[in-house]
Design brief:
Strand order of the largest sheet: 7-6-5-8-9-11-10
Helix content: 25-40%
Number of domains: 1
Order of helices and strands: EEEEHEHEHEHEHEHEEHH
Number of strands: 11
Structural class: alpha/beta
Mean pLDDT: 94
Radius of gyration: 18 Å
CATH topology: Rossmann fold
Distance between the termini: 41 Å
Number of helices: 8
Low-confidence stretches: none
CATH architecture: 3-Layer(aba) Sandwich
């Protein structure tokens, strides 16, 4: 990857850069890798495929009320949820106050209101001790090279499970090329008693992992497709592609996705 035209560089050693190319503004954290992207003509849209794929959780929990995000980046997911999931309240936990500032000044993240709150804190310290407080927990925290070790332990994923409501689910963005991908996945599987699914993104690289606090039954593909059609009409995302993508890395039959033990 290459930088576009640089429009911002942090004054200190926290290595935050913002670039622009072909109408898209991108956030970088110490490497050319794009951490977040925003099309200037559509600032609330999800420009990157992996962020759209993370929203596939709506196939399983279509009307969440409480969403907790660990990692903010440029705020793409927070903005999309704030605009489109009007019945949901979102809390975004971000360790870097500088990133919060950049998200607000350069990526148009709105100020806190009754449906969005940004908390400057280490996500690994924020979760422990919270119980049944979120319908969905979204984890998207990379520093340009790898996720923080504290956000990939079995204990952290167990804390996330505890923080979910009974019907809740974890949504974790992982890099399939990361040498520790299988380790992270096995830890999620352990913390969630094997109730987990993988969904690779359209563009190779990211794999979204869903961990379910509980799950009854194995959904028929036809039911998932009908749900996908409704969600696509509502949100303008490629939910039918997400359903097909679930066949790539998960147990299934011709008629059903297999999840329950």
């Amino acid at each position: 990857m290459r930088f576009g035209k640089k429009i911002f560089r942090s004054a200190r050693d926290d290595e935050i850069d913002v670039s622009e190319s072909s109408g898209v503004r991108s956030l970088h954290l110490g490497t050319p890798a794009i951490q977040s992207a925003m099309r200037l003509a559509r600032p609330d849209a999800l420009e990157l495929a992996y962020t759209r794929t993370m929203m596939a959780f709506l196939l399983f929990h279509p009307d969440p009320e409480e969403i907790l995000m660990i990692g903010l980046g440029g705020g793409s997911l927070a903005k999309f949820i704030h605009r489109h999931l009007v019945n949901a309240r979102a809390v975004a936990v971000e360790i870097s106050p500088k990133i919060v500032s950049v998200a607000r000044t350069l990526f148009f993240l709105p100020e806190d209101d009754d449906r969005l709150s940004v908390v400057v804190e280490d996500g690994a310290a924020y979760l422990p001790g919270r119980s049944s407080c979120a319908d969905v927990i979204m984890i998207d925290a990379y520093d340009g090279h790898s996720p923080p070790q504290s956000l990939t332990t079995t204990a952290f994923y167990a804390h996330a499970r505890e923080a979910l409501k009974p019907e809740g689910l974890l949504v974790a963005n992982l890099w399939g090329s990361d040498k520790n991908f299988s380790v992270y996945l096995s830890r999620i599987m352990e913390a969630f008693d094997g109730l987990a699914l993988c969904l690779p993104t359209e563009k190779r690289g990211n794999i979204i992992v869903f961990g379910f606090k509980q799950f009854t039954g194995n959904p028929p593909w036809q039911d998932l497709r009908e749900q996908a059609k409704s969600l696509s009409s509502r949100y303008g995302l490629e939910f039918l592609d997400f359903v097909e993508g679930l066949k790539k890395m998960n147990r299934h039959t011709e008629k059903r996705l297999i999840l329950s033990q």
